[in-house]
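Re: the multi-chain job from yesterday

Posting the exact lines I submitted so nobody has to dig through the queue logs.
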Amino acid sequence: KAGVTQTPRYLIKTRGQQVTLSCSPISGHRSVSWYQQTPGQGLQFLFEYFSETQRNKGNFPGRFSGRQFSNSRSEMNVSTLELGDSALYLCASSLASQGKADTQYFGPGTRLTVL
Amino acid sequence: GNSVTQMEGPVTLSEEAFLTINCTYTATGYPSLFWYVQYPGEGLQLLLKATKADDKGSNKGFEATYRKETTSFHLEKGSVQVSDSAVYFCALAGYSSASKIIFGSGTRLSIRP
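And the result, structure tokens for all chains:
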């Protein structure tokens, strides 16, 4: 079974631009979560999508948004990029039985650099 | 709110040494606890997990026991190898938000041959 895939793997943008990252979950997984990893803040939860609906949300500004398609693939968008948005963005998928801590499988991440 | 505190790194050990990485947590209710590992240039991999008190998770020679009385989930391995060099993250997920994982700050482990 193929793992979680993320595209692109690397991205360079300038301040003020917007960016869209893509995540394809493991086949059969209905939940997709996004995390931001930075040296200063560590790993922080952005949001989770399940059946095309945002089910959980972290403490990030509205510039960070996401969506999920009917095939469970997910995209996250960051508008008006700031230097501090430079990070590794990780996507994770799981079966997501409600109330059960199913194993989350992580993709390799997208490394975003904002200049 | 929920939080995880883990041992500051980096930790450097010789091959075949005994490893302990401390992890404590704060959470309401009965969270599930995890150890994830991140090898250089890669994403996170689940190393082991425990979903209730006194459970022991184990994988690849690593072990951790869910201790509710001390709110701890320390990672141990009896004999480390050079290939264990990586960053280790302790994490928890609450019952009501099982897909929202709260991570510790990570501990970088380096093993000398």
